[in-house]
Amino acid sequence: xxxxxxxxxGYGFYAPSRVVTNHDLEKMVDTSDEWIxxxxxxxxxxxxxxGENTSTMATRAAKIALERARLxxxxxxxxxxxxxxxxxxxxxxACLVQDALGAEHAGAFDVEAACTSFVSAIAVANxxxxxxxxxxxxxIGAECLSRLLDFKDRNTxxxxxxxxxxxxxxxxxxxxxxxxxxxxxxGSKGELLYVKAGGSRVPATNETVAQGQHFIRMQGxxxxxxxxxxxxxxxxxxxxxxxxxxxxxxxxxPHQANVRIIxxxxxxxxFPMEKVIVNIQRYGNTSAxxxxxxxxxxxxxxxxxxGDRVLLVAFGGGFTWGAAVMxxxxxxxxxxxxxxxxxxxxxxxxxxxxxxxxxxx
Length: 361
Ligand code: COA
Hints:
Layout: E1 5-14, E2 18-21, H1 22-26, H2 33-40, E3 44-47, H3 54-69, E4 78-82, H4 93-101, E5 107-111, H5 117-131, E6 136-144, H6 154-157, E7 162-172, E8 178-185, E9 193-195, H7 206-210, E10 216-218, H8 220-242, E11 251-254, H9 259-269, H10 280-283, H11 290-300, E12 309-316, E13 320-327, H12 336-356
Parallel strand pairs: 4-5, 4-6, 11-12
Antiparallel strand pairs: 1-7, 2-3, 6-7, 8-13, 9-10, 12-13
The structure holds coenzyme A.
C-alpha cells in the first residue's frame, strides 16, 4: 500500500434539526437559562429525533465528508467511530456505518475514550496510514447522549447534546497532515463521569433501571479542575512532539464541554481566544462529536483554511485526555483518481501476464 502522511481530504457534520433551548429545559427540570449560560456558555443543543441514533448521524456526517473528499465508499479502507453512546454494546457502531455507506472493503471498529474519542481515533488512523496498513480512513465522532440523560438530574441533563462530525484522512505527500497525536488516561478517576449499569460489571436489571443507573452521572466540579490542567498539558506535549510553537498555531479546536474550561485553557497557554473555536452555545457538549463538528463548521465558514495549522485538544470520562497537531488540507487529493486508475490498469496487466506466463520447465 502506498504510504504517506495522513491528510484531511474531506469533512462534514450533522446536527439533528430539533433545537432544545435552555428555556425548554426550564420546563423539565429546576434550572434557569441564566444558570446554564453563566456556568457553561450553553444556550441550546440539538436532540436526535425518533428513529435517529448514533450510527444514522455518523453516516450522514461521513457521507458529506466522503463527497467532499471525492472518495467512493467502496474505496474506503477503514472506518473508525469515536463514541460513548453507541447504538449497541456490540456490534460496533462503525460496522453499522460501514453497511449504511456501502463501504464493502472497509474494516470498521469503534474507539471509546468518552470525549477524547475523536482525538484517539485520529491517533489510531494516523498510525495505520503512516504504517501503510490503510490508504485512507473515515474518522467519525458521533453521539446520541440525549438517550443517556436523566431529565430529573439538573447536574447533567443541561450539558449534553447530540450530533456527529467526520473527516476523511488519506495517505498523501501533499501536506504534512497530522504532525502529532498524544493520548493519556487515568482510570482511577473513572467514576467522576460514568454510566454505571448496563455493562458486565453491573448488568442491567429492573433495579438498576429503577435507580436510573443507566444514565450519565458526573461530579462536575472535580471534572472541571482536572480538565483545565490536562488539556493545557496535552496541548503543550502535542506541540513539542510536532516541533511546532504555539505561535505557529492558526486555530485551536478544543472539546466543547464548558466555555469557562476553554477560556481557562487558553489563558493557561497564553493563547488568544480569537483563534479558538467555540460553538458550545449552539450544540452543548456533544462529547466525541464536538471537535469534528467544530472543525467542519469552521472549514465551512472559512475560519479554517487550507494550509492552516490546527491544534485539537480534548478531555473526558475515563479519565482521558489528548491533543493533536495537524496541517489542514480539506480538499481532495488532486491526482488520486488518476493514480487509482493507473494502479488498477497496472494490476490488470500483471494479472494478464501471470495468466500467459508459461510454467517453468
Ligand atoms: N441549574 C441550576 N442549578 C444547578 C444546575 C442547573 N442545571 N446544576 C447544578 N446546580 C446547582 C447545584 O445543585 C449546586 O447547588 P448547591 O450549591 O445548592 O448544592 C450548584 O448549582 C453548583 O454550583 P457550582 O459549584 O457553582 O457549579 P459550577 O460552577 O461547578 O458549575 C458545572 C457546574 C457542572 C457546569 C461545572 O462544574 C462543569 O462544567 N464541570 C465540568 C463538566 C464537564 O465538562 N463534563 C463533561 C466532561 S467531557
